[in-house]
Amino acid sequence: MDSTRQNKVNRLLQKELGEFFQRESRTFFGGTFITVTAVRITPDLSMARVHLSIFIAKDKQAVLDKVIELKKEIRKRIGNKIGKQVRIVPNFEFFIDDSMDYAENIDKLLKK
Predict the structure, then answer these.
(1) pLDDT tens digits, residue range 70-103?
(2) What is the residue range of 91's domain?
(3) pLDDT tens-digit profile of 45-58?
(4) What CATH code is carried by the domain that includes residue 90?
(5) Which pLDDT does position 21 carry in this prediction?
(6) Interhelix angle for 71-82 vs 4-29, to 10°?
(7) H or E element, residue 39
């Protein structure tokens, strides 16, 4: 069970990362639509697992690789935004959230 502090940091990171991907999508990712579906931070607040939903991309893994490549830049920009609110800006681990694809597949199967 997450503490109140973890929940607050989760929400803060999800909001700031979502805004980052919305602003920088065209610059870094060629207009790919990226949403942050979930953020889970460790109890010591040093590592955040970020789940991304990637749309309008032919190769989702290539987009995820680009996000991972830009991890330091993302952490720096997020740190500049939330540095006064958290003591330590966490390191990020990015994952593809395929729950939408799974739901879409189930929907297709049910329509048959």
Answers:
(1) 999 999 999 999 989 998 999 999 999 877 777 7
(2) 4-111
(3) 999 999 999 888 88
(4) 3.30.300.20
(5) 93
(6) 130
(7) strand 33-41
Q: Among residues 76, 82, 87, which one has the least CA distance to residue 11? A: 82
Residue 26 has pLDDT above 90, yes or no: no
Spatial separation of the C-alpha atoms in residues 32 and 96, rounded to whole Å: 14
Computed from CA positions of residues 33, 92, 12, 70, in that sequence, does the dihedral angle turn out positive or negative? Answer: negative
Amino acid at 39: V
* Cα–Cα separations (whole angstroms), residue 74 to 47, 68, 69, 70: 14, 9, 10, 6
**Is residue 78 a contact partner of residue 13, using CB atoms and an 8 Å limit?**
yes
Amino acid identity, residue 17? L
